[in-house]
Design a protein that fits this description.
Elements (H helix, E strand, L loop, with lengths): L1 H10 L17 H18 L12 H13 L4
């Protein structure tokens, strides 16, 4: 009986793992922009009063503030 179980284990094939790099089907630039707009509309509806807690003057200072805030803890 044990040999039959071992034989079955050896012959059982696994499904290949899904490739995490697999991309969505190709979409045009306009389709991608429309999907982004729909996503932003849903986020604005879900979080109407969302603001950024980090003080910044430009995209670069926001990036630096984000990196620095990840390195410290709130007290």
């Amino acid at each position: 009986m044990a040999k039959a179980a071992q034989k079955k284990k050896l012959t059982t094939k696994r499904k290949p793992a899904a490739d995490p790099r697999r991309r969505r089907p190709h979409e045009t630039y306009d389709e991608r922009r429309a999907r982004a707009r729909r996503l932003l509309e849903r986020l604005r509806a879900a979080y109407p009063a969302a603001t950024c807690a980090l003080h910044h003057d430009s995209a670069y200072t926001l990036l630096v503030a984000t990196i620095l805030s990840a390195q410290c803890t709130d007290e």
